[in-house]
Amino acid sequence: MNRQNLIHQLIHNEWDILVIGGGATGLGVALDAVTRGLKVVLIEKQDFASGPTSTSTKLIHGGVRYLEKAVKELDYGQYKLVHEALNERKIMIQNAPHISNPLPFILPTYSFWQKWYYLLGTKIYDWIAGKDDIPNSRILSKSETITKFPLLNSQKLNSSVLYYDGQFNDAFYATALMRTAVEKGACCLNYLELTSQEWDNENKIHKLAVKDNLKNEFLEVKSRLVLNCAGVQSDNIRKMFFHNIEPRLRPSKGVHIVLPRKWLPSQHSLLIPSTEDGRVIFVIPWYYAVIIGTTDTEVKDPNSHPKVTNEDIDYVLRQANPYLEKPIQKADIIGSFAGYRPLVKANKTNTEALIRNHEIETFQEKNFISVLGGKWTTYRQMAEEAVDEAFKVLNQKYVSCKTKNLPLIGASEKKYENTLNLPAEVHQHLHYYGSEYPILLEYLQKYGSDLIVENYPFTIGEMFFLKEIAQIHTVQDALMRGTRLGIIDFEAAEKAKIVLENIFEK
Ligand SMILES: Cc1cc2nc3c(=O)[nH]c(=O)nc-3n(C[C@H](O)[C@H](O)[C@H](O)COP(=O)(O)OP(=O)(O)OC[C@H]3O[C@@H](n4cnc5c(N)ncnc54)[C@H](O)[C@@H]3O)c2cc1C
């Protein structure tokens, strides 16, 4: 994927759609639009997925908590959100089974009635999901519960409910979306920032100034429509186009702490059903780590960098530890990450209410659409709605959405033979590339299969693949999006830098 070629395309075309933001939403829009025959360009000011798109809880879910709310408060909006997300759960896993999977959860119960109450809830959840490859929920006895999740504090435990949801590698999924969109003909570029905009005389063509943040140069891009997918920064973009516009977003911060994968001798996750602020906390085996979170605190400045504070860590430990046989100590924590949720105010009349679902905001006369709010799980649905809207604004012959059954690059569950006699962990790790496993082998043969850091299966050859094929330019991108070491193990990330600095830009 040659950046110079993509930049050449960017400045020498007049685009149907320019997408701002290379997170889940923008990448979903780019893929949806290009597969419906539109000429689409996407610009991302940092790396792809550098926002909450790579710091999510990594769940593809409807949210059992939202379902409980829907039932208790007879809230049809919440129900619709759960229904839509469970439908998308199935599609997301089907389209990229190499980087997503069903995940079993243990929901501990402490009384006879609580057991049946939770089972009823998860059965409704299964029923809403309909027919898919995700197993249904059931009750586990106390001893079965402890066998499946040995770290659970068994005092006062009655039993548990076992239910399933979806899990994925968020940054890998974003990379797969970007690469699939480019393969289909979209022009997606990172490190390009929209800095200003003006319309032509008829308000029909946007002339956009874009800064190349790798080269410190300005470029001019022309597009018929602008689709704002800037996540928590969407209000900045709205203001750039309409100076006096009211902000719509009210972001909230969520943090996770990370423990070594060996800390949890189980494939099962734990759902801690009640916390001091009425939320839930997850303890999840994920990739080469265990992640625990999340929190929900108000964000004063959405443009600030989300940080994990001591208070955040104390909060997570305070909620999780009573449920564990042996409390987690701060010294056990080897990584952490935080992100801002792009929550959107419900509507103009009810400015205080926040909704978890999304809104498509259109300025027809100005050829400008914003996709506000939403969650990872519903990225495809949001993209479909946004591109439907784009067809109307562009007054172009409608083409229906193609992404429901569109396998992403690499989509395959095939198990490959270890023909190069690689260490078992490296061989297993390369399966995250799905059907591209054989291509990875070529890179390992060409550039070497030495590890970039001990105890993790990332090899030099894989780093060259990421550099050449996945638009990973800097050491930081390799740590955050390429390997995920930047969130799962800070010490290993520091050590890996020494090797990565020979391959990527600092
Ligand atoms: C802690 C936490 C946990 C979560 N867990 C889950 C979960 O388990 N499951 C789930 O479904 N959802 C989850 N979510 C929600 C989900 O992560 C987000 O809804 C989703 O990632 C938002 O994607 P986005 O593309 O809209 O925004 P972003 O990821 O913020 O992407 C927007 C991009 O726009 C870019 N940008 C901004 N301004 C410009 C500009 N001027 N020029 C170019 N680019 C620009 C930014 O750099 C950014 O990369 C979670 C969120 C958080 C914070």
Give a written overview of the molecule.
The protein is of the alpha+beta class. It folds into three domains: 3-53 and 172-249 and 354-405, FAD/NAD(P)-binding domain; 104-167 and 250-341, D-Amino Acid Oxidase, subunit A, domain 2 (D-Amino Acid Oxidase, Chain A, domain 2); 424-500, no CATH class. The protein contains 16 helices and 20 strands. Strands 3, 4, 5, 6, 11, 12, 13, 14, 15 and 16 form a ten-stranded mixed beta sheet that branches. Strands 1, 2, 7, 8, 9, 10, 19 and 20 form an eight-stranded mixed beta sheet that branches. Helix 2 runs parallel beside helix 7 and helix 2 (24-35) packs across helix 10. The structure holds flavin-adenine dinucleotide. The site of flavin-adenine dinucleotide has 37 residues, from helix 2, strand 8 and strand 16.
List the defining traits of the structure above.
ten-stranded mixed sheet, globular, 3 domains, alpha+beta, D-Amino Acid Oxidase, Chain A, domain 2, binds flavin-adenine dinucleotide, eight-stranded mixed sheet, 506 residues, FAD/NAD(P)-binding domain, 16 helices
Annotate the secondary structure layout.
Elements: H1 3-11, E1 14-20, H2 24-35, E2 40-43, E3 59-60, H3 64-72, H4 76-95, E4 100-109, H5 112-129, E5 138-140, H6 142-148, E6 159-168, H7 170-183, E7 187-189, E8 192-199, E9 206-212, E10 217-228, H8 234-241, E11 252-260, E12 269-272, E13 281-286, E14 289-293, E15 297-298, H9 310-320, E16 335-341, E17 344-345, E18 354-355, E19 358-363, E20 368-373, H10 379-394, H11 424-429, H12 437-447, H13 460-469, H14 475-483, H15 485-488, H16 490-500
Parallel strand pairs: 1-2, 1-10, 2-7, 4-12, 10-20
Antiparallel strand pairs: 3-6, 4-6, 5-6, 8-9, 9-10, 11-14, 11-15, 11-16, 12-13, 13-14, 17-18, 19-20
Helix pairs in contact: 2-7, 2-10, 3-4, 12-13
The structure holds flavin-adenine dinucleotide.
